[in-house]
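Internal ticket - ligand job 611, adenosine-5'-triphosphate:
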Amino acid sequence: MTANAAEADKPSHFLRQIIERDLAQGTYASRTFAGTPGDAAHHATGPADPARIRTRFPPEPNGYLHVGHAKSICLNFGLAREYGGVCHLRFDDTNPEKEEQEYVDAIVEMVKWLGFDWETPDPLHPGASRSHLYYASNYFDFMYFAAEALIEAGHAYVDEQSADEMRQNRGDFGHAGTDSPFRTRTPAQNLARFREMRGGVHADGAMVLRAKIDMASPNINLRDPALYRIKRATHHNTGDTWCIYPMYTYAHPIEDALENITHSICTLEFEDQRPFYDWLLDTLCTLGLISRPRPHQYEFARLNLTYIVTSKRKLRQLVDEGHVDGWDDPRMPTLVGMRRRGYTPESLQLLAERSGVSKAGGWIDYSSLDIALRDDLDAKAPRACVVLDPLKLKLVNFAEVFGSHAHREPCHAPVHPAHPERGQRDFVLTSEVWIEREDFMELPSKGFFRLSPPSVDAAGAAVAGARSRLKYGYVIECTGFETDAQGQVSAVLAALVPGTKSGTPGADAVKVKGVITWVSAADGVPAEVRLYDRLFTEAQPDAGGRDFLSVLNPAAKKTVLAYVEPGLATAQADERFQFERHGYFVADRQDHAPGRLVFNRTATLKDTWSK
Ligand code: ATP
Ligand code: MG
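stdout (structure tokens):
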């Protein structure tokens, strides 16, 4: 029954089952749409839009999106795509004080970056497309109109109790609430009062409009919830037109209904709000203000990823107190940060899909994200050789083997080992190269197979220096090392074994256990490499009320001066690579430039965190 056969291998979950049921039963087949949501004409006219689902991603533009939002975006846009439907991007901008255009722009950019869009063919104008980007604030007129209708029908009243009185009279889980003394006002009295609220006659907070439902309901959300409050605040979209604003719980169902949303998918904390969602929409249907079939709300467990925090307050604290270098710091779980770190849209889509959709909350280990990244990039990312902790290696017999100390011996490596058609990387072997410091041990420990100098064993017999292969080059044998004034190893000495070049018949003549990566000291290009790791040392940084700042990982960013193979000198910002043996890296989108190479480590090749 899945609309797109290519998606057939995706595991089913309860939302897919609900959508498939609704498509099979034609639940929304009679729905029509036209014009602009919020128009009176919107519901009455327009061509039928059968067998189409409509979902929405409804961010409040009051902060930067994070990996949890990516889950919601992938789910809502993904389901719409999968079932041939439409997903709306809707800014839930009903809270004028905290919302800004800057966040609107950033959210638009990140949803696009994740690979989704909100343009669909326009059913009213063949050949044209239609943008499904909406603002809740564009429906303020309708919301107000609906509020008056609720008042006239006796479903809402203006309450002038103080905030304290309202709180006390709400009751609690064990105790029914108490009716407000204002609850018995007539519709005419309420309407007059509400119009005064709108007209700016009363002070902020002096009164609210409440739904008239049931002060004894076991669900506290049904105990006459507030619908409108007085708030003199300039709105980013409507300016000073309004001094009353709808409450989120009132606005959201109406937004869904006006946009003809079929499946309104949200996280579990809204489960207790669903009875009000249903009450409001059913009441508005009865009053003829919206038409059936109306939208329905479905809740799923939010994505909880270990080793990060997602609370907007905590993310802001990390930025404001300088624990990270801004919202797009590659250590941040914001989407701007993760993009800069090098995570791909595809890896986030994979994480969203693999973390599943369920009613039971749980934790997804951070390693799942890195696994998704590796699964995405392994087949795509070009390879490169890079030395992150450079130690000089001098080839003592280089001039003897090649006839000149200045000789440049061409070497080749595949751009991608599984895709020879992608061509090869060319670089040269020179008499001095950079190797990783960890590839040399003066006194090798057991099982160390890379480079160590000649020695004498316990019986007094001479032991030759260790042999390794310079990857894509020659087998070499360590002949000694040099130290600096502090006794630190400053260079490794080795002899090249002639006739053992990779890719030649002699390559297999000498068997070695160690293979080491290297970069020519003559041609290698210096680069700043930022080695990023998890931002926190504990899986649940704020568990049990712990101060999350106390478990910041001081090693989450380490900057090194590296040498990279010459081909990387032309890398473009945002270009991703697998640095052989080190992991996946991206050229930093802010700081990388020709002549100043800056790479960020996205993830290592293997998980280093599992115990
Ligand atoms: P706030 O605390 O300000 O409400 P929020 O994270 O809920 O923050 P919204 O802008 O309201 O921010 O979120 C937009 C959408 O993203 C909502 O539908 C919300 O349920 C969803 N969302 C937020 N966090 C997660 C998460 N961790 N997993 C899945 N969905 C999420
Ligand atoms: Mg929210």
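Auto-summary: The radius of gyration is 32 Å. The chain has 14 helices and 31 strands.
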